[in-house]
Specification:
The protein is 31% helix and 11% strand. It is an alpha+beta fold and 242 residues long. The strands form three sheets. The chain has a four-stranded antiparallel beta sheet. Strands 1-2 form a two-stranded antiparallel ribbon. The N terminus is likely disordered.
Length: 242
């Protein structure tokens, strides 16, 4: 069985962040925010090229960086096509539709034996593919490039790379909330967890000041409801005269 990731002998085989992204540890509690809610490490920064981190780290340490959100499907790490194709060429890799979004798998998913009626298989791990693609994941394509296939590349064309960079910058000026960074900043649009406690204390102190102010007009007391009338039974119905 071929290893999902091999050493890249040439930097021209792909961007420097690709291999660290495939090897990162995802969906483990963040060591910096272990006691916080939703602290799973499912984000990767293409500029820092470190390990995976959580949304709290992204808010304070990776603002305006190129960040990808890693998701899971059947216990395997995936990334959305519309996010990853801005930075690398994912041609020859099988895509799938999960929750109405196209995704690609990060690493290989070998099978003991291909299923019945399988026509296409991955050239690296021999996994059955539903469509006519050469690889099942980013890691398998990387291994295919390692074997010396000159037709394979992760690098985008210069015009395409420039266009994707313009799209990335334009996303920050738009109101679209579909990108990972937009989702994170929308989640903490009130200023993050620290500012939340500050605002809570401010609202408490403001409430004390209002309570001590004699000039504040309190709302009127709503009228009381007479429950005795509600329990009274209706009289016997009478027939209308002919």
């Amino acid at each position: 069985m071929v290893s999902p990731i091999v050493e890249m002998g040439n930097e021209g085989m792909g961007p420097p962040w690709l291999k660290p992204m495939l090897k990162a540890d995802y969906f483990v509690p963040c060591s910096l925010h272990f006691d916080s809610n939703k602290n799973e490490s499912n984000l990767f920064c293409l500029d820092c090229m470190g390990n995976a981190f959580c949304s709290y780290c992204c808010l304070f340490q990776h603002k305006h960086h190129r960040v990808l959100q890693i998701r899971r499907s059947s216990y395997h790490n995936v990334v959305r096509v519309n996010e990853i194709q801005r930075f690398i060429d994912i041609s020859c890799i099988q895509t799938y539709v999960i929750n109405s979004a196209k995704i690609v798998f990060l690493n290989e998913r070998p099978q003991p034996r291909p299923g019945k009626g399988v026509t296409f298989t991955c050239e690296i791990c021999s996994r059955g593919l539903p469509d006519n693609f050469r690889f099942c994941s980013l890691g398998c394509k990387m291994n295919g490039m390692k074997r010396g296939d000159s037709e394979l590349s992760f690098w985008l064309k210069p015009n395409t790379n420039k266009h994707n960079r313009e799209i990335f910058l334009a996303d920050w000026d738009s109101d679209d909330s579909s990108t990972p960074m937009k989702n994170i900043f929308n989640r903490f649009s009130d200023g993050g967890p620290n500012t939340f406690h500050e605002r809570l204390s401010c609202s408490t102190s403001s409430g004390d000041e209002l309570g001590n102010n004699n000039n504040v007009i309190s709302p009127k007391t709503p009228p009381q409801f007479n429950h005795s009338n509600s329990s009274r039974r209706k009289g016997v119905p009478h027939r209308a005269p002919f």
